Amino acid sequence: MKSILMTGATGGVGTFLRKEFANRYRLRLSDMRPLTTLGASESFMAGDCASLDDMLRVTEGVDGIIHLGGYSVEGPWETILQSNIIGAYNLYEAARRNGVKRVIFATSNHAMGFYKRTARIDHTPYPRPDGRYGLSKMFGEGVASLYADKYDVSSLCIRIGNAAMQPIDVRRLSIWISPRDLAQLIGIGLEHPDIRFAIVYGASDNARGWWDNTNAQCLGYRPVDRSEDFAAEVLRAHPATTGDAIADAHQGGAFCTAEMVENPAK
Ligand code: 15L
After folding, report:
1. How many CB atoms lie within 10 A of CB 40?
2. Which DSSP helix (H) or strand (E) runs through 44?
3. Residues labelled catalytic
């Protein structure tokens, strides 16, 4: 079994991925928060991605890394700077120094949040981050690209939509990814021999999706879950529009509206 480091392991995404990978990888779980209950193939090492020393320690001797660590929503600049920007740099620099050759970077739809919902985008258009958080994910994708080109650390960057057991509102019908589909995509990212640097979208088979995920399909990704199976239930519980015109027009939703200067021309 390969030994895989998972940063940010105590978060929601880490928690359901641990179940998916229980019999597949030896997981070294890491987080700033402690974890006391561990499975048979799991171990835990505390670590803060804002500390290069911590990242050097936790990345030592692993075959690959799933980097979920950092701040996972919009936040103050100092928090985003330490956790996501310095954190992403430290993670890649530690991987390079320890000879770890494959990283899964959990990036986010919020790197692209200012694209309109009417647009169908693949991995090629220039990012349009919808806040400091999205901007930090764009930076992380850039670090992944640099470390692939210059230092032979290969990466799959997964722009995760919303990873959850089921889609929770109308926007999430377009961007949802189930735990097993995300695990499939991460497994491809860890195992595929030809990945150097690739960006894919972390989405299930969503009929209302906004993304052309051909890049993921080319790597063999075949999502098994469909948000449409939950659509009737979601649409019964939620209005089609939220009353926030900016959020409803853009892929990033309410992340776009937050702190936005009023400009009726937009
Ligand atoms: C994200 O990137 C966040 O990590 C998650 O908490 C959700 O807000 C998600 O995006 C989303 O856009 O729904």
Report:
1. 7
2. strand 42-46
3. 133
Query: In the chain, where are the structural domains located?
Result: 3-256
Shortest CA distance to 202 belongs to which of 219, 8, 193? 219
> What mean pLDDT do residues 207-220 have?
98
* Residues framing ligand 1 (Cβ under 6 A): 72-73, 108-110, 162
The confidence score (pLDDT) of residue 262 equals 75
pLDDT tens track for 24-46: 999 999 999 999 899 999 999 99
**Tokens linked to 89:** 């740099």
Q: CA 222, 154, 65, 143: dihedral to nearest 10 degrees?
A: -110
Rounded to an integer, what distance in angstroms lies between the CA atom of residue 218 and that of residue 221?
7
Q: Ligand 1, residues 108, 206, 256: which to mutate, most atoms within 8 A of Cβ?
A: 108
Question: What fold does the segment set 3-256 form as a domain?
Answer: Rossmann fold (3.40.50)
Predicted TM-score of the model (pTM): 0.98
Place of tokens 């992403």: 88
